[in-house]
């Protein structure tokens, strides 16, 4: 009798503790499925979004109501696939490539001119500190002035090369729009 009473009391206590938790477990998935945690769609296929959420799919849910499964992102690998065959556009790509190389070369030259200026300044400082003759100091200052002239000329060439690159890019853009 004592054992039966203990069993009944423990069952009542367990029931009292479990019953309040039942509504919480029932509401866990109330007709809302958490699609943004799933990697597969409703048909078991892999969703190619790699977990990305965009405004159209409303935080990852597939919205089949109006537009179906249309994704508005452009596939740039497949857009304008046939334009490379036109000679005019191929020439535009060649012009852009040549203009880029020209800009890179001008930047390299400008960097080298700044390094030369830095070396000439250091040499002039050493000459002044070591008490060199006036002729050597005058010659060092003349080299620095020549370096500044060279830098100025290189900067102008770099600006022209960047302008040619910009015009080649805009020409390509206009040719692609004509398509």
The residue-averaged pLDDT reads 79
Report the strand count: 0
Poorly predicted spans: none
Order of helices and strands: HHHH
Helices, by number, come to: 4
How many angstroms does the end-to-end distance come to?
A: 95 Å
Structural class: mainly alpha
Portion of residues within helices: 55-70%
Report the sheet with the most strands, covering strand number, pairing sense and barrel closure.
none
Radius of gyration: 37 Å
- Structural shape: elongated
Portion in strands: under 5%
What would a concise description of this structure say?
The chain is an all-alpha fold.
What would your notes on this structure say?
The protein has 179 residues and is mainly α. It has a domain at 86-178. Helix content is 61%, strand content 0%. The protein has four helices and no strands. Helix 3 (87-129) runs antiparallel to helix 4. It is elongated. The relative contact order is 0.08.
SSE blueprint and pairings:
Elements: H1 2-18, H2 22-26, H3 87-129, H4 134-178
Helix pairs in contact: 3-4
Properties at a glance:
179 residues; mainly alpha; elongated
């Amino acid at each position: 009798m004592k054992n039966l009473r203990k069993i009944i009391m423990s069952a009542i206590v367990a029931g009292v503790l479990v019953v309040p938790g039942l509504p919480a477990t029932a509401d866990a998935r109330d007709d809302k499925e958490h699609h943004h945690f799933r990697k597969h769609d409703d048909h078991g296929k892999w969703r190619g979004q790699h977990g990305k959420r965009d405004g159209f799919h409303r935080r990852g849910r597939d919205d089949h109501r109006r537009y179906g499964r249309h994704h508005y992102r452009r596939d740039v690998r497949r857009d304008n696939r046939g334009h490379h065959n036109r000679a005019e556009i191929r020439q535009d790509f060649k012009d852009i490539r040549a203009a880029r190389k020209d800009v890179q070369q001008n930047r390299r030259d400008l960097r080298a001119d700044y390094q030369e200026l830095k070396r000439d300044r250091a040499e002039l400082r050493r000459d002044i500190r070591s008490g060199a003759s006036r002729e050597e100091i005058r010659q060092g200052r003349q080299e620095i002035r020549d370096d500044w002239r060279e830098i100025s000329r290189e900067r102008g060439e770099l600006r022209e090369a960047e302008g040619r690159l910009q015009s080649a890019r805009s020409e390509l853009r206009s040719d692609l729009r004509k398509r």
